[in-house]
Automatic annotation (TrEMBL):
PROSITE patterns: HTH_CROC1. Keywords: DNA-binding. One of its GO terms (cellular component) is cytosol. The keyword Transcription regulation does not apply. CDD domains: cupin_XRE_C, HTH_XRE. The keyword DNA-binding applies. Pfam families: Cupin_2, HTH_3. Residues 7-61 form the HTH cro/C1-type domain. This is Cupin domain-containing protein. One of its GO terms (molecular function) is DNA-binding transcription factor activity. It comes from Cohnella luojiensis. InterPro entries: Cro/C1-type_HTH (IPR001387), Cupin_2 (IPR013096), Lambda_DNA-bd_dom_sf (IPR010982), RmlC-like_jellyroll (IPR014710), RmlC_Cupin_sf (IPR011051), TransReg_Diox_bact_type (IPR050807).
Length: 185
């Protein structure tokens, strides 16, 4: 872990000197310098004191860089097409086992002629238009602002029944990161 570099980056971003951290924590400047250069590993109690002096949660110092907030700008979204109807899929963001997408369904289009299944759980929010969601023997008409969820291992499909484009926001959770393609679309 690179806790020292995180401490130094936070301290510099907040314009806090090592002397100020030491004054608040009671630690020596030599020790703080060794912490920031990763030459020594402070105890959890000491890290908690440093985190308090920096006004950040202790857990923020302990998480790995790749576990911190990830940002995907609109212009940088990965856009793909899916299925025979070439549904537009914008990949918004992802983290361990969870992905979020915006799917555009042209009028009369669907996620396929026959329902399909895959691993995972899905939640949906209809952003625009009107759709029919089918899973097994269940079927519902959903409009803008409506939401639904299902276990994706049961065959399912979505049909756009509006005269215009329907847009659905989807979050998909799977136990692992194995399934990287768009599961529903």
């Amino acid at each position: 872990m690179d806790i020292g570099s995180a401490i130094r980056a936070i301290r510099k971003r907040k314009n806090i000197t090592i002397a100020q951290i030491c004054e608040e924590t009671g630690l020596s400047q030599g020790f703080m310098s060794q912490v920031e250069t990763n030459k020594t590993s402070p105890s959890i109690s000491t890290l908690d004191n440093i985190a308090n002096a920096l006004n950040v949660p202790l857990t923020y110092l302990l998480i790995k860089k790749d576990e911190r907030m990830a940002i995907v700008r609109k212009a940088d979204r990965k856009v793909t097409t899916s299925g025979s109807e070439k549904l537009k899929v914008e990949h918004l963001s992802s983290t361990k086992g969870m992905r979020m997408m915006l799917v555009e369904l042209p009028p009369g289009s669907s996620t396929g002629e026959v329902p399909h299944a895959h691993k995972g759980e899905e939640t949906h929010l209809v952003i625009q238009g009107k759709i029919v969601a089918e899973q097994g023997e269940d079927s519902a008409i959903l409009e803008e602002g409506d939401s639904f969820s299902w276990n994706a291992s049961t065959p399912h499909r979505v049909i756009n029944v509006s005269e215009g484009i329907s847009i659905v926001l989807i979050s998909v959770y799977t136990e692992s990161d194995d399934e990287q393609e768009s599961p529903m679309y």
